[in-house]
Amino acid sequence: MQLNRLVNFHKTVGDKTRLRIIFLLKTGPLHGQAIAGKLGLTAPTISHHLSKLKEIDIVYQRREKNTIYFYLNERKLEFLATSIIQKGEEEMKPFNISEEEKIKVIKNFIDHNDKLKSIPAQRKKKLILLEYMLRGLKQGEVYLEKEMNEHIQKYHEDYATIRREFIMSNFMYRKEGKYELNPREMWPV
């Protein structure tokens, strides 16, 4: 599922009136006037909110003679509501990298002095090497910027770039010049 679609779903259902409509329709189909009456809102307001819910396909309508009834598409609602968990896992671990592949990349980019020969352009390889350079840092410990610079210089002279890559790639968190490792579950590799 596209991330934009998921964001749009959560923006749409993140409205109190729309949530109340969903709760009402969960008990069965209703026409617009009934929904307006139960929520104490005007018909045009209900119509606006129903159109937003129809756009994301969690509400659909059926005409019976002169009355339009609105139904909750429960399967779609459940799919969209639970897909944040699945998408989150996909986003957090975009690469499935074997240990053999990691070893091969490290051998190609780390010299005999344990220094990074160059920063690879390919994101996958860069992430493998960033993870490698985190060796020696401890989970739960806070590091000052100076300490981070010293640690990074063991591997590469451009500590500012590597430090920035640690943050941008979700390996580390920075606040007020202090650095801390993110939980391993947040790491991209």
TrEMBL record:
SMART domains: HTH_ARSR (SM00418). Keywords: DNA-binding, Transcription, Transcription regulation. Pfam families: DUF2087, HTH_5. It comes from the Bacteria. GO terms for molecular function: DNA binding; DNA-binding transcription factor activity. Residues 1-92 form the HTH arsR-type domain. CDD domains: HTH_ARSR (cd00090). NCBIfam families: HTH_metalloreg. This is ArsR family transcriptional regulator. It comes from Alkalihalobacillus trypoxylicola.
